Amino acid sequence: MRAVVSRVSSASVVVGGELVGAIGPGLLVLVGVAGSDSEAEADALAGKLTGLRIFDDGHGRMNRSVTDVGGSVLVVSQFTLLAETARGRRPSFTGAADPAVAEPLVARLVAAVDATGIATATGRFGARMQVSSVNDGPVTILLEVAGGRVR
């Protein structure tokens, strides 16, 4: 799994003119699922997201997690994060998992974050989405998970 994590003041997802997910302060997580990913990767990513200390502690240091600050998490599936661009000019997405594999893993990620008591919201899997966010900082971090471990 690959995730782009942004600390946000707010974020939302609209599908076909309908607001399907929105949060206030917290994390916007764009997540791509690789064909080799399993439940272990979803669980590891959830653990990292809920404990990642990227919120200010009042002294200008990033020492607090989304859990600590009572923030929310908006998870948006984005297979394009698995794009391979080494050859040619058109990205290849062969490394991305098939939707039948990816959708349950994204749902597991969301459920694992939600189970910690953090308010969660999502986009709509497979839909054309308009994602809006106000990046706070800006703070944006790339996480990669393989073999059940975050790198």
Beta strands, count: 9
* Portion in helices: 10-25%
- Report the CATH topology name: D-tyrosyl-trna(Tyr) Deacylase, Chain: A
Which homologous superfamily in CATH is the superfamily?
D-tyrosyl-tRNA(Tyr) deacylase
Structural class designation: alpha+beta
Give the number of helices: 3
Under the CATH scheme, which class?
Alpha Beta
- Which strand-content bin applies to the residues? 35-45%
Q: Give average pLDDT, whole number.
A: 96
Number of domains: 1
The main sheet comes to:
7 strands, mixed
Give an account of the 3D structure.
It is globular and about 45 Å long. It is built from three helices and nine strands, in the order βββαββαβαβββ. It has 151 residues and is α+β, with helices and mostly antiparallel strands. Strands 1, 2, 3, 6, 7, 8 and 9 form a seven-stranded mixed sheet that branches. Strands 4-5 form a two-stranded antiparallel sheet. It has helices spanning 39-51, 66-69, 99-114, and strands spanning 2-15, 18-23, 26-32, 55-56, 62-64, 72-77, 119-122, 130-146, 149-150. It has a single domain, classed as D-tyrosyl-tRNA(Tyr) deacylase (D-tyrosyl-trna(Tyr) Deacylase, Chain: A, 3-Layer(bba) Sandwich), CATH 3.50.80.
